[in-house]
Design goal:
There is one protein chain. This protein is an alpha+beta fold. The protein has three helices and six strands, in the order H-H-E-E-E-H-E-E-E. Strands 1, 2, 3, 4, 5 and 6 form a six-stranded antiparallel beta sheet that branches. The longest helix has 38 residues, at 41-78.
Amino acid sequence: MYSERDMQEINGRIRKNWLVLVPILAVLLAAYVYGLEASVQWVSMVAGALLVVAACYGLLAYLMPNYRYKGFLIDMAQGLSRDVKGTVVEIGDKAELQDGAMVLPVRVLLDSDEPAAAIGASAQSRRLGLEEEKDTQGERIVYLNASKRDQFPKAGAEVLLHCYGRHVKSVD
């Protein structure tokens, strides 16, 4: 589901945002410096305030979300994955922001061999004193990137999901 094209798109968006933000900041910085040099107090006050607002807005509204999503894609490509085999019960309709990506919750009913492995891991984690989610019904909730919904099977389909954490990397 994820490809090199996704990384190229996010890099293009980041580059475009920088190409828009840098000239705006340069003009505002020039106006601020002019106001200081010419001793025109109102110009330096307005330009300084606009410089701070433009820098904060550009970084927080445009660049940070894109860099966060880029980090998510890097983690997705390089991180450890696990396989979840089962039947898709339902795909949520409401997207939410998680790890820099808009995702949809997907309920998966695990195959019969999956809970047995979870029980063995649960016993080992209790010996080590680790907390673990209770999974008595053999269901998992994984998260699907909302932009990849058309590539995902419909409810009722048997699937083998390759997941990074709780995010779906690919489907077999």
